[in-house]
Amino acid sequence: SSSSMDAQTKRPGFLEFPYLSTPHRNLMLELVSKIETSLVSQLLPPSLPPDVQYFQNESGSSQGTIHIQSGNEDSMVDFILGSWIHSKLPTGELNITTLTAYLNKKTDAPRFLLEFIQSSPTSLILLLDLPHRKDLILNPNYLTTFYMDTQLDHLRQQLEKIPETRPYLPSSLYIRCALSPTAVSIRIDCGPTGSGRIDEVIRDHVSPVAKQMLDIWLYKCAYGKRELMEEEIIDLEKRDALVNKKTLDIDLASGLPRLFGQDVANRVIEPLEKYFKA
Amino acid sequence: SSSSMDAQTKRPGFLEFPYLSTPHRNLMLELVSKIETSLVSQLLPPSLPPDVQYFQNESGSSQGTIHIQSGNEDSMVDFILGSWIHSKLPTGELNITTLTAYLNKKTDAPRFLLEFIQSSPTSLILLLDLPHRKDLILNPNYLTTFYMDTQLDHLRQQLEKIPETRPYLPSSLYIRCALSPTAVSIRIDCGPTGSGRIDEVIRDHVSPVAKQMLDIWLYKCAYGKRELMEEEIIDLEKRDALVNKKTLDIDLASGLPRLFGQDVANRVIEPLEKYFKA
Fold first, then answer.
1. Beta carbons of B122 and B190 less than 8 angstroms apart
2. What is the DSSP string of A189-248?
3. What's the CA gap between A60 and A106, in Å, rounded?
4. Nearest CA to CA, how far is A177 from chain B (Å)?
5. Which domain holds residue A180?
């Protein structure tokens, strides 16, 4: 079909965010730029095959991009993963935008996670968190260092206070466990006529909070030194691998085939498994 | 003062719940009765000193009861703890009612936790959960057994649907971590004229859910057999002791002195430390 041809010729890149509103796109660009500037000497060039960097279904109604940059050997960054998915569904347009940062076994510091799930022009689900990499019950000092001393809950409260938001609980119990106790996990719903308001909420509220959380992550996690014992490193690798495998299964292996068909999904997921060590 | 004398002569027991509404008192009595009936051959008589079973501050404006029964050597129950606190504060009356069940190292199955915090006649905070005793990220089978297979999230959803409820996040990040991903953690607010409605919510909604959750706990946790390896038992003891110490510190050591003065608080907390191995 011609729409399929168009989409194939176009092949928008990760950083174009062609389906996001201006404040939403600006936020994503600022975050990516902040990461690239801060970690410039640590990140290797993107290395995914072109048909995984950009992919679509047969009809072109679903499009996706994945952008991965690994950290070099001096870095504590394992890899940075950005992605967006756009899908024209019978119920409306679905846009999922993510930016996640994974650290390697040189540190047990938290990851960075940002995910927008937008299934209507005036409402969205936002997950914004520094997910922990140790059992917080057994490691209260870790809780103090990364979640109390950083005042992360104040950032969460800023977004909770907005009248259009309410708490959002992911349907997967495993994903609930993977989120930290200060995770922003909210649904923002500005009502059928709220397209101006949702832009305002993203620009004036979500954007500053996401940027502050990324700053905390960069300063305290991606750069902070941590002394780990041999046994802690073994436990960390085991835990990271398990979380990666489970979240890959829950997020991608269940969602991608529905939007892109099984063949495209397999093609995309396979190279990711290497990064996720899943 | 005469009110102090009255309170001293009265010394209501744990099971009297003299300051609760009828549906609230009925619920507590049904739950305690259910536990006692189900575990009748396993529970030892209460053993706390009388001045810990009942305590009050100097003026008599704050009263409290604690009821503890340990499990015998055949039981997987470590101890059952019930308590209520009533306090006349300048801002109004505060009533805290709890019922918790702790298992011993023969099983790693979850605990039972019920806590009502009522600071106005028409609103309350409810925590109702089977708190996990293992890191759920590292033990997805545990998550499946106790939280997915039991459909606990359906019970949570029943209460979430009530229009007068909204999610409640405990201020302590550690307590947030101690709650399971299916925990009921809500504030029920029926507005200044809602005293009839809050009775209805407790009788028709909270009560059936709490009873079903206790049934699941009794059947699946207090009676279910679990095969544990030596190393798992060591980890379990370490984790239980840490959770106990932290929750004792957060819940009682910080709250009791404010309501009862430091002397009474010390008298009450000291014998509890033995049970909590804190």
1. yes
2. E--TT-HHHHHHHIIIIIHHHHHHHHHHIIIIIIS------HHHHHHHHHHHHHHHHHHI
3. 42
4. 6
5. 2-276
Q: Is B166 on the interface with A (CB under 8 A)?
A: yes
Strands (DSSP E) contained in chain B are 54-56, 62-70, 77-89, 92-103, 112-120, 123-129, 165-167, 184-189
C-alpha to C-alpha distances, A46 to A273, B228, B232, nearest whole angstrom: 16, 46, 42
* Least Cα separation, residue B136 to chain A (angstroms): 7
Q: Which of A138, A173, A239 shows the shortest C-beta gap to B148?
A: A173
Contacts of A147 in chain B (CB under 8 A): 173
Query: Is any Cβ of chain A less than 8 angstroms from the Cβ of B163?
Result: no
Q: Hey, is the C-beta of B246 within 8 angstroms of any chain A C-beta?
A: yes
pLDDT range class, residue B10, cuts 50, 70, 90:
low
SS3 A167: strand
Closest-CA distance of chain A to residue B33, Å: 32
The position carrying tokens 């730029």 is A33
Beta-strand pair B112-120/A123-129: unpaired
Selection from A101, A220, A224, A102 nearest residue A152 by Cα: A220
8 Å CB contact of A173 and B166: no
Q: CB B56: neighbour CB atoms within 10 A?
A: 22
Put simply, whether B29 touches A (Cβ < 8 Å) is no
Contact A39, A32 (CB under 8 A): no
CB B131 within 8 A of CB B174: no
ipTM above 0.90, yes or no: yes
Mutate one of B173, B175, B231 to test the A interface: name it (highest A CB count within 10 A): B173
Interchain proximity B182–A173, CB inside 8 Å: yes
Q: A194-207 as b/e, with b when 16 or more CB fall inside 10 Å? A: beeebbebbbebbb
CB B116 within 8 A of CB B125: yes
Mean pLDDT confidence for B6-17:
75
Strand order in the sheet with B184-189: B54-56, B62-70, B77-89, B92-103, B112-120, B123-129, B184-189, B165-167
CATH number of the domain residue B129 falls in: 3.40.1500.20
> Per the CB < 8 Å rule, is B147 touching A173?
yes
Closest chain A residue to the Cα of B172, Cα to Cα: A181
Closest CA of chain B from A206, distance in Å: 20
Q: Give A84's strand partners.
A: A65, A97
Structurally, chain A folds into a number of domains equal to 1
* Cα separations in angstroms, A102 against A111, A154, A264, B65, B74: 5, 24, 25, 49, 47
Between chains, do B136 and A239 touch, taking CB under 8 Å as contact? no
pLDDT tens digits, one per residue of B216-258: 999 999 998 899 999 999 999 999 999 999 988 888 888 899 9
Report DSSP state, residue B14.
G
